[in-house]
Amino acid sequence: MDFGWNPEDQVFRKEVREFIAENVTPEVEDEMQTRQESGRGPLTAAVYKKIADKGWIGISWPKEYGGQSGSRLNQYIVEEEFTRVGLTVGGAGGGGPAILAVGTDEQKNFFLPGMLSGEVSMASGFTEPSGGADLASLQTRAVRDGDFYVINGQKMFTSSAHAATHVYLLVRTDPEAPKHRGLSILLVPMDTPGITVRPLWSIQNDPPAPPGTTYGTPRTNETFYEDVRVPVSCLLGEENMGWYVNAARLNLDRVGASRYLISVRRDEDIINWSKVNKLNGHSIADDPENRDKLAELWIEAQVCRLMTMRSMSIVEREGREFTYEGSAEKVWAPEHGVKVTEAIAQMLGPYGQLLSTSPRAISKGLYAHNLLGCFQSGINHGSVQIMRDQMARRGLGLPRG
Hints:
The protein is α+β, with helices and mostly antiparallel strands and 401 residues long. It has three domains: 7-91, Acyl-CoA dehydrogenase/oxidase, N-terminal domain (Butyryl-Coa Dehydrogenase, subunit A, domain 1, Orthogonal Bundle); 122-240, Beta Barrel (Butyryl-CoA Dehydrogenase, subunit A, domain 2); 254-395, Butyryl-CoA Dehydrogenase, subunit A, domain 3. The chain is built from twelve helices and eight strands. The protein has helices at 7-23, 26-34, 42-53, 72-83, 96-102, 105-117, 242-253, 257-276, 288-316, 324-348, 366-373, 384-395, and strands spanning 122-125, 141-145, 148-156, 166-172, 183-189, 195-201, 219-231, 235-236. A hairpin with a 2-residue loop joins strand 2 (141-145) and strand 3. Helix 8 (257-276) packs antiparallel against helix 9 (288-316), helix 8 (257-276) packs parallel to helix 10 and helix 10 (324-348) crosses helix 11. The two termini are 35 Å apart.
């Protein structure tokens, strides 16, 4: 199968790149770096407004909800090009696909246009202190009280909760059911009384990670829910079926240009750096062992790209949803990202370990900060061990246990 781009795709990519060159100025980049913790600044918001006016956000979403009913491959191009400059533009994640699939008309009409315009943003309320990667063991409860749910519990690593308008909250609505059942999804406004957001400062906060760092966000959060009352209309899908809705949503989140680039940008960064920079008077590529390692890693990066394109093709060309393919990508790409980050650290030696505040840091400390953040890629959005289990059962038909 040919995963190349046709001439129309290439013209479209050129248009997107020209827009980025004109609008994502050094001033915008500086603002994005300084406003990481507090959300979009005015310059960044103005760029997003221009992107939305061009119809590039949610290209594949239905027109009736603000999208273009267009090609997922065009959406991929937009997502890829903007991700390279630090802007999240797409429509794959954030709960949007799940709302499209099982949301009520009221939910679709409110959330989807709002997500595309930037007026609505969604944090993910999954992980809990007692559960870790075992998401099905969560304990946050939502008890039905007439036309309301009353929520009590705690979530960890609720990134962007301090800036989001809503949280996509996975809760337990039937404590008597088996742990994978009895779960529901609630779309909860963050300004609802009883919600407390407390910052968890990451290892990338001090010193601050430079732009382009893998998992360089300085802040995540823990969130507390104390007698939080939300109307039943916040329920997404059927009550007690949240695990299955959420599994489909996370599968979609695991593929796409932004997810793929998390794992392969390091390959691009070090190869581009080695072409124009020297270390102790020599390019790291002068060493034949380094050249062999860079070539090996580049080939693995292309496997990441092909896996992503396979999943996209299944949806775009075959009209069906991928299953184990997303899990396979979630194993290969993060493990590759860790491997390439460690290899770069070995090639650069001590200078590659200097963080952003050091005057002798390479690329403003990019590679050192990547080393600090890369290991969480094997856990975020489902650990690679769990993904291997899904590949075995869904892809190979093997039994549990």
